[in-house]
Specification:
TonB-dependent receptor, mainly beta, 25-stranded antiparallel beta sheet
Length: 791
């Protein structure tokens, strides 16, 4: 809604009546006459001024894809104006996909599938920090973000992507690729709500309702609670995804800027797996054939049976909660404190086979003879589970002391994580049924004669992070010059146990990294500014890097863990120019990154389950330029364009098989040279629409650059009509979304990069065998109809 306010000034000449102030301009408009009390005194005339701000729907630059910024670093923001025109189940990744540097790989049109990825300037999603109003959302073990779990899009007020660096006080460890900051809408001061229903392609349905309490008595507290249910058939292959989600926020404001809130999200899903494909299988079968899971269980053929879709369903439960508090202590002193908690449980299973004899528990041979249903020649189809149960809690506190032109910052962040991962197995019936896909019910799992569960792996890790940070925000020359200097010391410890027999039991790692930073912003005039920043970041490898894993059919070492792991360290710089004009808002940013021990996320098959792991890619240098331009609405039209040029190269040869691969100087994986996006929005208050187009250049999938995926262009269209208020219904709206309008059949991203796809001669002359990388397949065409209304 527009920000509207009325006031009663001293009497004004009648010639001024009928004017509306809008973003610094004066336009003719209707007036609202306020009739003064009857008296014998001369009549006094009053005016009402309507200020239509940049935050008002239909009046935002670039259709809600850009806004004026004043930071010392690059930031791009998506606001409600754009989100209100997108499919309601769109994830934070999909909402940010038009921003410069953002490259989103999806596996389905609507964002249900967890098989998705975001890279920013070629840096993977596990190199990005995710926070919801100061509450961290990253996975405690793998750093990844799972956007379908975060929140419902109707509850976001904005999605901001800082491509180059996280804020000094952000509670994240791994943000070399930037920070995605999510913000909820503030609860309304009046009781009411919002509801929507959607139906579309692949029998997709979704229902959403948000209830607003309004001000609760005289407590000054107001809040909202929302619930959504959604389901969709797989667009390729068999399967159906189901999701239920709850968001809430309660807020109290008082005094001079004091503010306390309680926020949270609960999510439960059961999603079907979309197999990643190799280049060979993609060229052979495309979206058909062997690139999909089997719709029917073939008990007579184990190779086919392990691909039965029901064995690959992925159930997940997550809960995020935080309580951000801002206290104005004195005229100069303020305090920000955010305690938070996170719980997650999930199972990432897959179809596999297991022998009835000759099994191993870690490296220990088992004398047990199992009795497995429908075994043939001593081998049976089973479901290989991979469960992760994690708890996380902590707090982040920041003290601000403002005096003169200085705003000093002193902060402390503490984070505690408890992560338990196991790989039990479940029997499969003659019809392909397997008990309890959550793998929580012990009776459904395969046990040994001594009553213990048969486990392919079992890890338990406790991690603790302590971070101290200090900084100063200096404002000089009437805020024309801003200088931000900061220093953060991060201490991270991990202690764990490998709970299967073998040479490894206790593991531990400790890291301490100093992270200085500096940023400067110079405001040339009211419309033009330049900025520069230099930032350092680090991340430790995933927890899986600590542990040995073993093949339960042979006891052989599958992967080797080590406590002597090297942390990734990076130094990044940005130099940028911004313009905030009467019609044009835009920015141009040059960036440079230097990495040592670059951590690359990849997927691995562990005893039939697909898990995430990392590889050390040595040094890397990334340089490029980002640009984005948006126009303020002109005759209700708001265009937007963004683009990126990226040149990311590997700095050294990588060790493999006792030799070195000649990778120095080659292009880094997941780093398209060119990306571009364009969109145009129309909104006259009733009729609205937006058309977007996104181009991503080719990406290498191997460090040897001997295999790559082709470039990709996709387009989406949204159209709708917003009615006026009807009785208690506020602005009922009808909307149609058309996704991937050309039905582009293409690979959307690199799921699992490898060192080399083809056999390659190493530096020292040995032959290093190649292995095929795998890819995400982008979703096909889909349409969705949504009816919504406030009340």
């Amino acid at each position: 809604m527009s920000n509207r306010f009325s006031y009663r000034p001293r009497p004004v000449p009648a010639v001024l009546l009928g004017l509306t102030v809008c973003a610094g301009t004066v336009r003719a408009a209707d007036t609202t006459a306020l009739t003064p009390p009857a008296s014998s005194a001369p009549k006094t005339e009053y005016i009402t001024v309507h200020r239509i701000s940049d935050s008002a729907p239909g009046h935002q630059p670039g259709g809600g894809l850009i806004r004026p910024e004043n930071s010392v670093r690059s930031i791009s923001t998506v606001s409600r104006d754009y989100m209100d025109k997108q499919p309601p189940m769109a994830t934070a990744y999909q909402l940010a996909s038009m921003l410069p540097g953002a490259n989103v790989a999806t596996s389905d049109p609507f964002g249900f599938s967890p098989n998705t990825n975001l890279t920013v300037r070629g840096l993977n999603n596990d190199a990005i920090g995710y926070v919801l109003e100061g509450t961290p959302l990253n996975d405690v073990a793998y750093y990844s973000g799972y956007p379908s779990q975060f929140a419902d899009s109707e509850n976001y007020s904005q999605v901001a992507l800082a491509q180059g660096a996280a804020d000094l006080d952000s509670p994240v460890l791994n943000a070399a690729g930037g920070l995605m900051s999510l913000s909820f809408l503030d609860p309304s001061q009046k009781a009411g709500g919002f509801a929507s229903v959607s139906y579309g392609s692949f029998d997709t349905n979704r229902e959403f309702i948000r209830l607003e309490t309004g001000n609760i008595g005289n407590s000054g507290i107001r809040g909202f609670v929302s619930y959504s249910h959604s389901a969709s058939d797989n667009w390729r292959g068999p399967g159906r995804d189901k999701r239920q989600h709850v968001d809430f926020k309660f807020l109290k404001e008082w005094g001079q800027g004091n503010r306390a809130s309680l926020i949270g999200s609960f999510n439960t899903t059961i999603t079907s797996y979309y197999p990643q494909v190799t280049m060979e299988s993609w060229k052979a079968d495309g979206i058909h054939g062997a690139n999909n899971l089997a719709g029917h269980y073939d008990a007579s053929n184990a190779d086919n049976a392990v691909n039965y879709w029901r064995l690959w369903r992925d159930p997940e439960r997550t809960f995020y909660a935080g309580a951000p508090v801002h206290l104005h202590l004195t005229h100069k002193l303020s305090l920000d404190v955010t305690p938070y908690a996170q719980f997650a449980y999930g199972n990432v299973p897959g179809g596999s086979t297991l022998t009835e004899t000759g099994l191993y528990n870690g490296t220990q041979p088992l004398s047990d003879t199992l009795t497995l249903p429908n075994a043939q020649d001593g081998t049976a189809v089973v479901r290989a589970n991979y469960t992760q149960r994690s708890y996380r809690s902590g707090f982040n506190s920041t003290l601000h002391y403002k005096t003169g032109w200085n705003d000093f910052v002193l902060g402390y962040w503490y984070d505690y994580g408890d992560d338990n991962e196991q790989q039990p197995f479940t029997t499969v019936s003659a019809t392909g049924a397997s008990g309890d896909i959550w793998a929580e019910n012990s009776s459904s799992l395969i046990h040994l004669a001594n009553g213990q569960k048969l486990l392919g792996g079992s890890f338990h890790t406790i991690s603790q992070t302590n971070a101290l940070y200090v900084g100063d925000h200096i404002s000089l020359l009437h805020d024309r010059l801003t200088i931000e200097a900061g220093f953060k010391a991060v201490m991270m410890s991990r202690a764990g146990t490998n709970n299967v027999p073998g040479p490894q039991y206790r593991v531990a790692s400790n890291s301490m990294e100093p992270l200085p930073r500096l940023g400067v912003r110079w405001r040339i005039d009211e419309q033009n500014q330049i900025f520069f920043n230099a930032t350092t970041n680090f991340r430790a490898p995933d927890q899986t890097a600590l542990y040995n894993t073993y093949d339960p059919t042979s006891g052989a070492l599958a992967t080797t863990g080590s406590a002597d792991v090297r942390n990734e360290y990076s130094i990044s710089e940005e130099l940028g120019y911004r313009r905030t004009g009467q019609w044009i808002i835009g920015s141009l940013t040059l960036f440079n990154y230097n990495f040592t021990n670059r951590q690359i996320s990849t997927l691995a098959s562990q005893n039939g389950s697909i898990i995430q792991t990392t590889m050390n890619a040595g040094g890397q240098t990334s340089r490029g330029v980002d640009v984005e331009i948006g126009l303020r609405p002109w005759h209700h039209f708001s265009p937007y364009v963004s683009g990126e040029y990226l040149h990311a190269t590997i700095d050294n040869n990588i060790a493999s098989g006792g030799d070195l691969l000649p990778t120095k100087g080659r292009i880094a994986v997941r780093s398209p040279t060119l990306q571009a996006a364009a969109g145009i929005s129309y909104d006259d208050g009733h009729i609205f629409g937006v058309a977007t187009l996104h181009y991503t250049g080719h990406q290498y999938a191997t460090f040897m650059n001997d295999e790559r995926m082709s470039d990709r262009t996709t387009g989406d269209i949204s159209v709708g009509y917003r009615f006026g208020d009807v009785s208690r219904l506020h602005k009922p709206t009808l909307r149609l979304n058309f996704i991937n309008i050309t039905n582009e059949r293409s690979l959307s991203g690199v799921a699992s990069p490898t060192l080399n796809a083809k056999d390659t001669n190493g530096i020292y002359g040995s032959t290093i065998s190649g292995s095929a990388p795998s890819y995400y397949v982008g979703g096909g065409f889909a349409a969705l109809f949504t009816a919504s209304t406030g009340f």
